[in-house]
């Protein structure tokens, strides 16, 4: 599996729905947006994403399994950040049919995440299995 993991597949599914939502919003003149709250989520998410991205890209370049920093709380913090902050923030800014975009995103992530995890297990073996056993997939434990 390449550095981007399942993101191209998730992006294709989510992007296709986003285009449809833009069309439907224009066609039916649907609004219901909350731009300030959406922008807050979006900016917060992008800052957190950048922090996680910098961590994982360094570990990837070294060929290491990252289990510290952002990755100490959940196995897939980047997918979580996009699914709970960035995409919902974007959706809330736009409103209308775009509000279903996070659902489409999560359905596609859940559909494809096993593929990425199998690749990680193949690459890191027991280290990955041990990490996966103690670290939740998307939502940190309290």
User: How many distinct beta strands?
Assistant: 0
Helix content: over 70%
- Topology as H/E string? HHHHH
Assess the beta-strand content as a share of residues.
under 5%
Structural class: mainly alpha
Main sheet overview: none
Q: How many domains?
A: 1
Radius of gyration: 16 Å
**Count of helices?**
5
Written overview of the protein:
The structure is a single chain. The longest helix is centred in the middle third of the chain and has 28 residues, at 35-62. With 142 residues, the chain is mostly helical. Helix 2 packs antiparallel against helix 3 and helix 4 packs across helix 5. The protein has one domain. The radius of gyration is 16 Å and the shape is elongated. It contains five helices and no strands. It starts with 6 loop residues before the first helix and ends in an 8-residue tail after the last helix. The mean pLDDT is 93. 71% of the residues lie in helices and 0% in strands.
Structure keywords:
142 residues; mainly alpha
Itemize the secondary structure elements and their pairings.
Layout (H helix, E strand, L loop, with lengths): L6 H22 L6 H28 L14 H18 L6 H24 L1 H9 L8
